[in-house]
Amino acid sequence: MRADARRNLAKIVEAAASVMAERGVSAPMELIARRAGVGVGTLYRRFPDRGALVAAVAEHYVESLAEALDRAAAEAPDAWQGLRAFALWAGDPGRGALAAALAELPEETYEDRAAFVRARGRWLERLGALVRRAQAGGLMRADVGTDDVVAALNLFACHPEALPAHVAARPVRFLELMLDGMKAGTPV
C-alpha cells in the first residue's frame, strides 16, 4: 500500500472512531469523510459498507486498548498499579463513548473479521499476563480473573446506561471501588 493510501486509511479510521463516539455507529459516512479530510469516494473505496468501517474502528479500538495496557504496565511500579491505571484509563467516561457505540452493534458486525479477532486476542493475552503478574506478586486476589476485569470494564465503558443513576454520575469512583475489591488482602 502506498504511503498516502496508508495515511488516508489511518485518517478515516481515526475520524470514524471520533465521529462514532460522538454520534453513534450510524453517523453519516459523509461526516466521517469530511472529518478525515477525504472525499466520500475515497472512504467507500477503502470501506465498501458501514460494517467494514465499523470492524476497522473496532479493531483500532482494541489495538488502542493493548497499547494503553502496555504503556500502563511499563510506567507503573508494579503489575497491580499498572492494571489499575489501565482500567481507570479504559473506563474513563469520555473514552468509553466509542466502546458504548460499538457495544450497540450485534457482535457479528465485527466478530467474524479476522483482524479484529486477532487484535482482541492479543489484548486479552496481554491483560491476562498482567493479571497473572499481579497475582504472582501477591498484589491481586487469586480468585479474580481476567474475565472479572473485562466484565468491570465492559460495564463501565460499554454499558454505562446499565448503571444506576448515582453510579453513572460518578463512574470513576465506583470503578475504583470495584478495583479495590480485586486487590489482594480484600476480604471475600
> Unreliable segments (pLDDT under 50, ≥5 consecutive)?
none
Name of the CATH homologous superfamily of the largest domain: Tetracycline Repressor, domain 2
CATH T-level topology of the largest domain: Tetracycline Repressor, domain 2
Give the tally of β-strands.
Answer: 0
Give the overall average pLDDT.
Answer: 88
Largest sheet: none
CA gyration radius, whole angstroms: 18 Å
* Helix-residue proportion: over 70%
Descriptive overview:
With 188 residues, this protein is mainly α. It has two domains: 1-48, Homeodomain-like (Arc Repressor Mutant, subunit A); 49-182, Tetracycline Repressor, domain 2 (Orthogonal Bundle). The chain has eleven helices and no strands. The chain has helices at residues 3-23, 29-36, 40-46, 50-75, 79-90, 93-103, 108-111, 114-136, 146-158, 165-168, 171-182. The longest helix is centred in the N-terminal third of the chain and has 26 residues, at 50-75. The protein is elongated, with a radius of gyration of 18 Å. The model has no long low-confidence stretch (mean pLDDT 88).
